[in-house]
């Protein structure tokens, strides 16, 4: 049996002696030379293979897979011995794989997934809220910040004591719009507010006021009036009745048109006749797609109550007039996987990005057991002055503080010099922060970058799923490289070896009986007509019978266009001597293509024939490509085209219902040896198999394989218990 794929090709299986001195936990499953392989890593490979196949197994299948696995390990061990894993191209490729494969396991990705799911959950809900803003500049003093914070705490308390939030917003809010809207924001969903504001609104219960929170605008509190389910998007059409000083006339027109609609009058006609919306009255009054929260408040309830396309509302009053709306189509909020890419893009472009970084740092500090030494950190910050704002700060490379440890993380340390070097490289001119705050911002970036690097180093040692996956790519790539050189390319480039192999195995490459087979498949009536002709030389296309000059003229007219345009056509004309003389005058220049056969019959017979298989197909198929199919090929005996009982020279009619076939079998050739050029692909494949088998035998002799019988029994037991 030849297994499929590059990972395993042929196998040899060798059991060694088990070592009972090892504990069951520490025992390797098998060893190759001085290298041990664990039960855990074998089961990882085997279970992954089971998932890709049926999922079930027999012990024989397990044995077979183990043989393949041992052979795989032999080849990889030899690849390492030959230094394939040290080649620069391989090392560079593995660096890329190491980072790419780590993504699903890294803290940043886990945090990002949490943010994606959080954002999506907020697309399913809408919040109605008001707010109060107290502006704070980016470089505000701690005293000013505390003053704003305490003011908002006091306002929240007053709301709790039944004072009106709207009145307080009008009095205190520094949002310019508060003078008109009393801080009211209406309904909003995900991504419509800056992230800290969205967070506060969605996390505050309806009827409650949030704690003070900070955004880039200053400090806020938010009052949540209500929450509702997001209904998705809607496409409406409308008829608009403009309202002047008196709304009575506009409403009367709307009511009149609604009555006409209720009687079944055409919507589009009424839009064209009555709507005051000039831009779309000739388009049935259609509006663009809108989310439900984009609808005017007066539309929301009516639109959500329209169930089926074509449903029409009662007249609705809006700010500028009256409307009748019709449902064209509704779309619910799409599932997460349809909008994941859009959500990820929007997350990377808003405040969630910095929030993700903060959350990632916090999580990494916990996961890596990070310790930050505050006193050395304060000392380091004291050496960063205002030059950092200009992007030209530098540190003293001989400073005594440079070796002081700022961070311990896993088995790594980050020093003051590491931080200073990062600041020198990454500082930029033009920051609107104070030197202290800008240094703190760079500290967070430094910490994130370094901790993520340490996490990647630790991941291989601490996460078995990642370790096995990376090893799979590492070993698989090594295997491909060594197999390509030792087997695949060798078989293609070693022409002397290939020729020698073919000569030694010449008897394995022979033809069975072969024959040229002409197959004509089609309708029975067409095939039976063809059977009456000499298929071995000419195909009969059509037979005419003509008894009079007028009939001959009509037949000739029908034949002339086809006959004169296709060189491969022939005519056979059966007629008495008198008719032959008359007919010959019709073909003065076609003596070689027209055959006259004297036959003492009253009516002349005309046969239209061809030697061309393609002309035969075109003539009968016309527009119906299934009418006739013609093929001619050299076939071996016991093929799928010719039933066994018809494998003999001659013309055979194979009846298969409405559609049958004619088989013309000629020149049956006796079995013969194949030449290399006729079978090179198969010989190359067999030579590759021979080279691999030979190589595996050499590896077996070079490296001893020992299997731990007790560990193997435990593998079988574990799998049987699943």
UniProtKB/TrEMBL annotation:
It comes from Imperialibacter roseus. The keyword Signal applies. SUPFAM superfamilies: FKBP-like (SSF54534). Residues 1-23 form the signal peptide. This is Peptidylprolyl isomerase. Pfam families: Rotamase (PF00639). It comes from the Bacteria. Keywords: Isomerase, Rotamase, Signal. Residues 124-226, 231-329 form the PpiC domain. InterPro entries: PPIase_dom_sf (IPR046357), PPIase_PpiC (IPR000297), PrsA_foldase (IPR050245). GO terms for molecular function: isomerase activity. The keyword Isomerase applies. PANTHER family: PEPTIDYL-PROLYL CIS-TRANS ISOMERASE HP_0175-RELATED, PEPTIDYLPROLYL ISOMERASE.
């Amino acid at each position: 049996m030849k297994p499929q794929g590059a990972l395993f090709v042929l196998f040899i299986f060798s059991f060694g002696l088990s070592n009972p001195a090892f504990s069951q936990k520490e025992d390797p499953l098998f060893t190759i030379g001085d290298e041990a392989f664990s039960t855990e890593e074998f089961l990882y490979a085997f279970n992954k293979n089971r998932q890709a196949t049926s999922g079930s197994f027999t012990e024989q299948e397990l044995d077979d897979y183990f043989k393949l696995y041992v052979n795989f390990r032999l080849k990889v061990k030899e690849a390492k011995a030959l230094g394939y894993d040290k080649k620069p191209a391989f090392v560079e490729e593995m660096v890329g794989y190491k980072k790419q494969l780590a993504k699903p396991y890294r803290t940043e990705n886990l945090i990002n997934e949490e943010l994606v799911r959080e954002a999506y959950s907020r697309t399913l809900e809408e919040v109605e809220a008001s707010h109060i803003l107290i502006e704070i500049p980016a470089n505000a003093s701690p005293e000013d910040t505390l003053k704003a914070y305490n003011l908002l705490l006091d306002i929240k308390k007053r709301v709790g004591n039944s004072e009106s939030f709207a009145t307080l917003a009008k009095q205190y809010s520094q949002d310019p719009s508060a003078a008109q809207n009393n801080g009211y924001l209406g309904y909003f969903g995900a991504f419509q507010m800056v992230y800290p504001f969205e967070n506060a609104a969605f996390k505050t219960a309806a009827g409650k006021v949030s704690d003070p929170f900070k955004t880039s605008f200053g400090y806020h509190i938010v009052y949540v009036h209500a929450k509702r389910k997001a209904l998705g998007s809607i496409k409406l059409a409308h008829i608009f009745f403009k309202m002047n000083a008196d709304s009575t006339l506009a409403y009367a027109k709307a009511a009149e048109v609604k009555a006409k609609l209720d009687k079944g009058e055409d919507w589009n006609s009424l839009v064209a006749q009555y709507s005051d919306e000039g831009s779309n009255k000739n388009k049935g009054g259609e509006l663009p797609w809108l989310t439900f929260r984009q609808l005017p408040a007066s539309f929301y309830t009516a639109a959500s109550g329209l169930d089926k396309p074509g449903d029409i509302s009662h007249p609705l009053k809006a700010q500028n007039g009256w409307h009748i709306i019709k449902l064209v189509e509704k779309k619910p909020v799409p599932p997460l996987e349809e909008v994941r890419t859009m959500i990820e893009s929007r997350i990377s472009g808003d405040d969630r990005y910095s929030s993700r970084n903060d959350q990632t740092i916090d999580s990494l500090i916990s996961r890596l057991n990070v310790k930050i030494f505050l006193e050395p950190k304060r000392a380091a910050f004291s050496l960063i002055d205002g030059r950092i704002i200009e992007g030209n700060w530098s540190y003293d490379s001989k400073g005594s503080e440079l070796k002081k440890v700022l961070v311990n993380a896993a088995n790594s340390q980050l020093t003051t010099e590491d931080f200073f070097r990062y600041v020198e490289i990454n500082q930029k001119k033009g920051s609107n922060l104070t030197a202290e705050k800008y240094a703190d911002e760079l500290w967070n970036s430094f910490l994130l970058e370094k901790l993520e690097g340490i996490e990647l180093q630790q991941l291989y040692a601490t996460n078995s799923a990642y370790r096995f996956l990376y090893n799979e790519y590492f070993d698989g790539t090594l295997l491909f490289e060594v197999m390509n050189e030792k087997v695949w390319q060798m078989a293609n480039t070693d022409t002397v070896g290939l020729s020698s192999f073919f000569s030694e195995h010449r008897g394995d490459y022979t033809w069975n009986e072969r024959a040229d087979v002409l197959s004509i498949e089609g309708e029975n009536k067409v095939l039976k007509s063809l059977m009456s002709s000499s298929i071995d030389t000419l195909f009969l296309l059509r037979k005419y019978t003509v008894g009079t000059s007028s009939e001959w003229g009509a037949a000739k007219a029908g034949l002339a266009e086809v006959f004169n345009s296709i060189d491969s056509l022939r005519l056979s004309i059966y007629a008495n001597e008198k008719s032959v003389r008359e007919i010959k005058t019709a073909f003065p220049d076609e003596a070689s293509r027209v055959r006259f056969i004297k036959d003492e019959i009253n009516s002349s017979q005309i046969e239209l024939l061809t030697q061309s298989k393609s002309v035969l197909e075109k003539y009968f198929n016309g527009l119906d490509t299934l009418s006739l199919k013609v093929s001619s090929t050299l076939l071996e005996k016991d093929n799928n085209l010719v039933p066994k009982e018809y494998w003999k020279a001659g013309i055979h009619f194979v009846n298969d219902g409405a559609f049958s076939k004619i088989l013309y079998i000629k020149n049956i050739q006796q079995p013969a040896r194949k030449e290399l050029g006729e079978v090179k692909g198969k010989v190359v494949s067999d030579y590759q198999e021979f080279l691999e088998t030979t190589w595996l035998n050499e590896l077996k002799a070079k490296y001893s394989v020992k299997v731990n019988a007790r560990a193997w029994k435990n593998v079988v037991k574990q799998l049987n218990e699943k």
